[in-house]
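Q: Can I see a sequence and its folded structure?
A: Here is a first one.
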Amino acid sequence: MMRAVGYQHSLEIEHHDALVDIELPRPTAKGCDVLVEVKAISVNPIDTKVRMRAQPPEGEWKVLGWDAAGVVVEVGDDVTGFKVGDEVFYAGSLSRDGTNAQFHLVDSRIIALKPRSLSWIEAAALPLTSITAYEVLFDRLRVAECQVPGAASAIVIIGGAGGVGSMAVQLARQLTDLTVLSTASRDTTKAWVEQMGAHRVLDHSQPLSPQVEAVGIGAPGFAFSITHTDQHQADIAHFLSPQGHMALIDDPAQFQLGLFKGKSIAIHWESMFTRSLFGTPDMARQGEILAHVAKLVDEGKIKTTLAQNFGPINAVNLKRAHALLESHGSHGKIVLEGF
């Protein structure tokens, strides 16, 4: 048996049974899977969304969590490249139980050796946000190879203080020649975004187009909207260069494609779980991305986005983390360590 945190009914986080400490059977690794003893996890907005949307079958438990760092304790017969004792980090899959458990099964193709220079909690803060930001920049927007005629070589990252935004700012700054314009609205989040490496910080509580224009470099070729896209879409369509590229990861209640037609702007909608959920032929790309991120970390080029340590992995602390994320008042990543 193993300890875990789960739920049986989709409930508001204030409810006593929204998340519960439970015991479940310990899984066994087969095929391409490895079994990881979880040392630390981080909490993401997807955790709160799945909790409210995914009602498990009657009498069954749903375990959340899509970030972990830990030690491989079993390997399936088809696993190559990993062995018992390896220290790894990864983001898991939507189609499986999550990482809020002592032991977790994960496909070996989407994991990587954790950065040697980081602690468990520092490493656990990175996987989901790193993969999301990396896929947006280099697999969707293709910023390293795509030239937008007449556009400024720049990207506007809307919501740069969160987990994904923090990684997007760092990766764009370290791996491209783009001018990185990122948004934040509070003094603490503005300082955080500057610390991550943004060239300029804009205030997303105010109209963005005049602020982008005031930078004086021309119309950017790229935009990455992480949050509140429904509020910013008209601004994005206005400030982006003709034939520019926009990516988003949130779920706006209404998204008006017509705003972008006149400029022939390409829209890219990113979900980090696509490759693992559908078992795509390039699924191992996520393991490769994490390996690259680990290398960048160990070389001192990017840093963990850990912001707050909420203590041991249990229902009380996870409920605190969910509540903070739902308030939209956090920056960086919230982590928990040990059972």
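Q: Show me another, different protein.
A: A second, unrelated one:
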Amino acid sequence: MLKNIPDVKLGIIAVSRDCFIISLSESRRAAIVKAFGNAASLYECKVTVENELDMLKAVEDVKKAGCNALCVFLGNFGPETPETLIAKNFDGPVMYAAAAEESGNSLIDGRGDAYCGVLNCSYNLGLRHLKAVIPEYPVGSAEDVAKMMEDFIPVARALIGLSKLKVITFGPRPQDFFACNAPIKGLYDIGVEIQENSELDLLVSYKAHANDPRIDDVCKEMAAELGAKGNKWPDFLPRMAQFELTLLDWAEKNKGAREYVVFADKCWPAFPEAFGFEPCYVNSRLASKGIPVACEVDIYGALSEYIGTCVTGAPVTLLDINNTVPQDMWEAEIKPKYDYKLNDTFMGFHCGNTPFCCLAPCSDPAVKYQLIQHRLLEPKGSEPDFTRGTLEGDIAAGDITFFRVHANADGKLQAYVAQGEVLPVATRSFGGIGIFAIKEMGRFYRHVLISKRYPHHGAVAFGHVGKALYTIFQYLGVEDIAYNKPAGCLYADENPFA
């Protein structure tokens, strides 16, 4: 169970313009509550808002009920000032939705005109510079609005989490990875705190955890997760268990005024030699607990992973957009079975930070050693020692969303979202790796990732969650949100004659 993300307690407040029949809003609100699938996570406020005093009573009521997210429901036209002041006075994300008319036989006393009211509501929100989530088509039946609310919950979970998040780094960020060296002002713009530390701080803390009595229990957890095949060096586990406890204790002691924590750590080249192992497997285990640890001090990678964790309620990973799929592999194993061009495919890779539960069992996931670092840091021909610690295996096949929010060179936030899948094709390579397929990836690679100067890291959520991510980025004020455009729909800088 993930412990580093908020639980959403959603409330619903109905509003009514005083020249309309109040019972229309109330009966329509009751129908939504009945249609909502998870009654335990929804609180029905019985104060129907017609004026500002009602608004204060309703907000106080939902706060006492423990609500941290709201649906404001226009059961009829709605009072535009009180209904928008709900968003101003409530400390949490707010969604607005409205009632469709119910029957051609009830268009006199049963007509609510909420379709019209949403326009005034939106205008008033803009005048007051208030943020709110408004669904793509915010007017519907009780079942429609209940579905909008269900879609809002993962969005609200991410927004609440971000408002209470601290990014803890251990650096400095690597010289040869300037792409990860993004301005941090964007974090403050969306209410995220950051605490930057030295690698030496982490090393001192790690050494202080030597002989920690909890190490044996963590080793048993690791051994149980890895199984006999995956646990190639049982004697090596205590080093990694000691590090896991170091990070967890650091998070707890350094949260400060925040509730949630993610890490962005420098993991090479000095780390393995100084600490005695590669941190990848520990990073994967923390991601499984809802505490992403981004490689190479990638602050916005960690932020992106956390958003994905909140949206899915499940572990995520961070990967390099790494290498092309060889044409012979594509012709033999992809082209005959799947509707993807060669340049729709690529391999996503990292040394070994992807959670065990996200790897394909048939690839025999195991703790191994970092091949590239072994070549660089340990004597040629020697058995690996401190370059051990990667969790390696093919990433499990299934739907994915590849995404990132990032601060560009001018400090402005930008983001991309692309839905696709991991194919059930053996990679025949090393590390935590998978063959990814995204429609029109070649054009997306050139005209988004390259043209908009994105770094090589992308977050991966396991499932198609682009709708929620796009809504979150819009709410956060990200003006440039890119996606993989279909064939025939040109990017701004795409050569039409190419």
